[in-house]
Design goal:
Helix 2 runs antiparallel to helix 6. About 12% of the residues have low confidence. A hairpin with a 5-residue loop joins strand 3 and strand 4. With 303 residues, this protein is an alpha/beta fold. The protein is built from eleven helices and eight strands. It is globular. 43% of the residues are buried.
Length: 303
């Protein structure tokens, strides 16, 4: 009598900056339902969460993000101001090695198949990391231009994978997934603008250096949603952030139309700004709720 082969499940964790904490809730809810993916592919923040999960650090990462305040997050962006980006790379490395994967952890040694998606800055090609250092792969996958410095790897400069493949269904299929559950964080994010009064930012007026430092501080504050008065012209960084949202929304639609997931989870996160990492609790809870809403379809796909 022929034995039916167990279907291989792939989990594609999409990009979306701070909305990506919802991936934690998705993984927790799937686990409670008895679903453990055999393959995990991630883009940008999806690569962070997927790498942390397979390295056994997800609970530690969740505890850290839930305890982090807006000021804690701003420390990543207010120190390392340079021509390459606004991120303090030493602090970023500390975060990756402690909460994602140790410096020596390699993808080949992970308990399950894993891929992180990045983009070749010169050619626009999609790059998949399926071997090598986990932290190195994650760093390349999350290198959002202007904030994080590009990563040099194998004679290429690499940046955020969300520029070419925001929801990495394709690598899941290529690594052998029969069923792909994908998480799209970019649904409903375009056209959301917050009309409230921003907190004031102290101003310095002492020379060019002070001016540059002031711009860096304003940048650090502006990476959160740009709260503006109604009918007021959008600020520079709101325009940049929402432009990224528009591009990712359009690319996501195109990629999923060409290579659809078997199940697409779309957490409802338009109220969370691009880099509001301090709103982790709400994002994680929505990730769990999203899985619960999809349970009838999940049960149908994974009997």
């Amino acid at each position: 009598m022929e034995t039916k082969r167990k279907q291989t499940i792939g989990l594609a964790l999409g990009s979306g900056a701070s909305r990506g904490w919802s991936h934690i809730g998705v993984i927790k809810a799937l686990s409670r339902a008895g679903i453990e993916p055999d393959i995990i592919c991630g883009t940008s923040v999806g690569a962070i969460i997927g790498g942390s999960y397979l390295a056994g650090n997800l609970r530690k990462l969740e505890d850290w993000v839930l305890a982090s305040s807006r000021s804690d997050v701003l420390r990543f962006f207010g120190i390392g101001f340079s021509k390459a980006g606004f991120v303090d790379t030493e602090r970023l490395n500390w975060f990756l090695y402690n909460y994602v994967a140790a410096e020596e952890q390699r993808i080949e040694d992970m308990p399950k198949k894993y891929a992180a998606v990045s983009t070749d800055l010169d050619t626009g090609r999609e790059i998949w990391f399926t071997e090598g250092g986990v932290a190195d792969a994650v760093r390349a996958s999350m290198a959002l231009p202007g904030l994080f410095p590009a990563v040099h790897n194998d004679q290429r400069w690499l940046v955020d994978g969300g520029l070419v493949n925001p929801v990495p269904v394709t690598p899941c299929r290529a690594l052998g997934a029969d069923i792909v559950i994908a998480v799209n964080l970019n649904s409903g994010i375009v056209g959301k603008r917050n009309h409230t009064t921003p907190a004031s930012i102290p101003t310095e007026r002492r020379g060019v250096l002070s001016s540059i430092k002031q711009q860096a501080r304003e940048y650090s504050n502006s990476i959160f949603p740009n709260h503006v008065k109604k009918d007021e012209a959008p600020g520079l960084f709101y325009a940049i952030a929402n432009s990224v949202n528009i591009v990712q929304d359009r690319i996501t639609r195109s990629r999923l139309a060409g290579d659809p997931a078997d199940l697409l989870l779309t957490p409802r996160l338009p109220h969370i700004g691009m880099l509001e990492f301090h709103l982790a609790a709400a994002a994680i809870q929505e990730g769990e709720d999203c899985v619960q809403r999809a349970m009838p379809e999940i049960d149908r796909l994974t009997p």
